[in-house]
Specification:
Chain A: Keywords: DNA-binding. The complex is a heterodimer. The mean pLDDT of chain A is 87. In chain A, the strands form 3 sheets. A 5-stranded mixed beta barrel of chain A has the order 1-2-3-5-4. By secondary structure, chain A is of the alpha+beta class. Chain A has 3 domains: 63 residues, no CATH class; 79 residues, Nucleic acid-binding proteins (OB fold (Dihydrolipoamide Acetyltransferase, E2P), Beta Barrel); 122 residues, OB fold (Dihydrolipoamide Acetyltransferase, E2P). Helices cover 33% and strands 34% of the residues of chain B. Chain B is globular, with a radius of gyration of 17 Å. The chains are: A alpha+beta, B alpha+beta. Chains A and B meet through strand 7 and helix 8 of A and strand 1, strand 5, strand 8, strand 9 and helix 3 of B.
């Protein structure tokens, strides 16, 4: 017990607080011998007592003992503590008085929402600068991960530029559907949103600008992925240009024929798409048809089937 | 994400699909999705098939009702498309047989007076594709089926339920897969 008391006292003196070892020992003794508290619990309780009475932050006392691992944003996992090195991509209007700041932080592997709670008592961050967020906890909200900077966390300014990357994802599978809102569409000239029935959600009735896009559903037999193809990719994969699509629609007096034609040439075939993931969509950067398989792959599968 | 998520289109060979007869709903809700559990433990609400359309016939009396037969290396699927599947029905009406087709659809079952369960597919979409796509599908379906066979002894609820209900012979299905794969070699 004497040793335990010395440990505690030594740790406090490192923080610049001298606590007579007898005081520590006395409290420990009371806990352990009189009230039969287990050693570790007693230790915790005594530490907390002195932290409180000398007004020391808990994380200062415990630093170094439970250092969170430094991880990439793409690797965060629910319920884990982590250190995150990243650049503040955006700061958002904060919605609640208990929140100090909220926004988006990114590193080479992706971006993630973060919330700095008022109770964390840390200095505020600036957009476009890089920081090391220490000891933040990851949780899941609305199906997405986010970082929480709370009272055991700290933030360090980093004088370096961090390249914010979008993790490129690849999906191979069959295109099983093309959703409505694809084909020849019109966009609002002001905000570029797709128009529904000739009207923009924001700006009302406007003269739209023609565009081509495809909202595709990719399926590999075990999962699905919604994918968005922009005009240049649509033109490349369908061989239909915006001009020819407009002509086609004008001849038929129906924009829908463009979508029909796209479905006929794409749905049911296999593609390899690459791009970055935003919400449930994969914003496609490249798409190529998958036509062939390896002869060796075929042999391997046959062998695998025969050993069962 | 909570709420609606699209059902994955499963890959099943015709033989396994024909040998399936356990159809059920998840939950009592009126709108609960209908599933078909296959002998290797695929829980199917949507299916993706690429095969050869070898027969088609309009069996409707008043309005058009198309029946098509799509074959893969292990057998054939029956597909039925009527007025509520306009896109698929139209393609069926216009196409020539034989043709390679890709079908995305829902499995449906019909119990005969004798108590036999017949499975068929109600297509959401049906498109003409090429032979390469069909070969890709055979490979992919073989992979998916092998994965399910390997999982049969696992702890997944679908595998356990399939085992309990069908008592499937893994050998039976793995030889089906290898037969399907070997048929690809013959074409070269």
């Amino acid at each position: 017990m004497k040793q335990l008391a010395q440990e505690i006292s030594a740790r406090f003196s490192e923080l610049g607080v001298e606590i007579p070892i007898e005081d520590v020992e006395e409290r420990l003794d009371k806990m352990i011998n009189k009230f039969k508290v287990p050693r570790e619990e007693a230790r915790r309780s005594v530490v907390n007592y002195f932290l409180k009475s000398y007004n020391i932050k808990r994380n200062e006392f415990y630093t170094g003992q439970s250092e969170s691992p430094l991880i990439n944003i793409s690797d965060v996992d629910d319920g884990k503590w982590a250190n995150i090195r990243g650049k503040i991509v955006q700061l958002w209007d904060n919605t609640h008085e208990s929140i100090s700041q909220v926004g988006l932080i990114g590193d080479e592997t992706g971006t993630i929402k973060f919330t700095i709670w008022e109770s964390a008592g840390v200095s505020s961050v600036e957009e476009g600068k890089s920081y090391l967020l220490k000891n933040v906890v990851v949780n899941e909200w609305n199906g997405k991960f986010q970082l929480n900077v709370n009272k055991s966390s700290s933030i360090e300014f980093l004088d370096e530029e961090i390249e914010v990357g979008n993790a490129t994802v690849e999906f191979k599978g069959a295109m099983v559907d093309i959703q409505s809102g694809s084909g020849l569409i019109k966009r609002c000239p002001e905000c570029n949103r797709a128009l529904t029935k000739g009207a923009c959600m924001e700006h009302g009735k406007v003269d739209g600008v023609y565009d081509l896009r495809i909202k595709a559903v990719m399926d590999d037999g075990s999962s699905i992925q919604d994918a968005i193809l922009k005009r240049d990719l649509v033109e490349g994969i369908t061989g239909m240009t915006l001009e020819s699509a407009i002509t086609l629609a004008a001849d038929a007096l129906d924009q829908g024929v463009v979508l029909e034609k796209m479905k006929d040439s794409l749905v049911g075939r296999y593609y390899d798409v690459k791009g970055s993931r935003v919400d449930r969509y994969l914003i496609v950067e490249s798409i190529s048809p998958t036509f062939t398989y390896d002869a060796s792959e075929l042999d391997e599968l046959i062998a695998a089937a025969e050993v069962i | 994400m909570a709420g609606y998520t699209r059902e994955v289109a499963r890959r099943i060979f015709a033989q396994e699909f024909r040998e399936s007869n356990l159809s059920f709903k998840d939950g009592d809700d009126q709108y609960a999705p209908q599933y078909l559990l296959t002998p290797t433990g695929a829980k199917v609400n949507r299916i993706f098939i690429v095969g050869t359309l070898i027969e088609k016939e309009d069996i409707g009396t008043d309005s058009e009702y198309w029946r098509g037969r799509v074959t893969d290396p292990t057998g054939s699927f029956l597909i039925y498309a009527g007025q509520y599947q306009p896109e698929a029905a139209q393609v069926l009406a216009e196409c020539e047989t034989p043709a390679f087709v890709a079908v995305v659809g829902k499995p449906s079952t019909y119990t005969t007076n004798e108590g036999d369960v017949l499975t068929s597919v109600r297509p959401e979409s049906l498109h003409i594709v090429d032979g390469q796509t069909r070969d890709m599908w055979v490979i992919e379906t073989a992979k998916c089926t092998l994965d399910r066979i390997k999982e049969l002894d696992g702890s997944s609820p679908n595998a356990q339920r399939a085992k309990e209900y069908y008592d499937p012979d893994a050998k039976h299905y793995s030889s089906m897969v290898s037969q399907a794969l070997k048929s690809l070699k013959e074409t070269y």
